[in-house]
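User: Continuing from earlier, I have the next pair ready.

Assistant: Great, send them over.

User: Here they are, in order.

Assistant: Folding the first of the pair now:
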Amino acid sequence: MEARDVIKRPVVTEKTTMMMAENKYCFIVDRRANKTQIRQAVEEIFGVRVLDVNTMNMTGKLKRLGRFEGRRPSEKKAVVTLAPGSRIEFFEGV
């Protein structure tokens, strides 16, 4: 699995913006990716040093439209802690 296949998109919310002050960044990643693959992908794409990776599986919420019921897709979220002095320039100005 290539680095661009592992990391799908960044998560930019109020909470993740506050976490950036602690040098933590949040990404939606491939559900089959493990912590080692996520670490290598972030280091390869952004050129930074990763200290820690925390992952969580987010199950899709149940939604209704009238009498029809559906489910949003499930996804995997990763919170990546970078080494002191490392920053991801992609998130600057958000």
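And the other member of the pair:
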Amino acid sequence: MNTIKKLSIILIIGLGFSIPAQAEKSHINQSQTDPIVVTDTFSVSNMSCHKDANLVSRSLYRLKGVKKVQIIGDKVVVKYDRTKQTEKQIIAAIEGTGTCENPNDKRKKAKKK
């Protein structure tokens, strides 16, 4: 009889630990599993020289949450924290950058690919 009581206690304790773990998993919602850091590619027009690319890169790195910027031709790849920046803010930063000939010339156009 003593062995049965011990086994019952062990079984009850074991179930007590496994039930909360299962309940905890069921409360995870989709927003908690979405990535916080995302990578987006933008197509940018009117980047005529490497200095323009440097200006765009510096402008993007000034934004809070931007982790990495890579510019290849007319494509800008940005890795950023989506809780601190939005696509619209990144596009605005790209389009708000002047050119190497004229810092006030805001003629770049960007769109997400």
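Worth noting for the second one:
The chain has four helices and four strands. The first strand starts at residue 37 and ends at 45.
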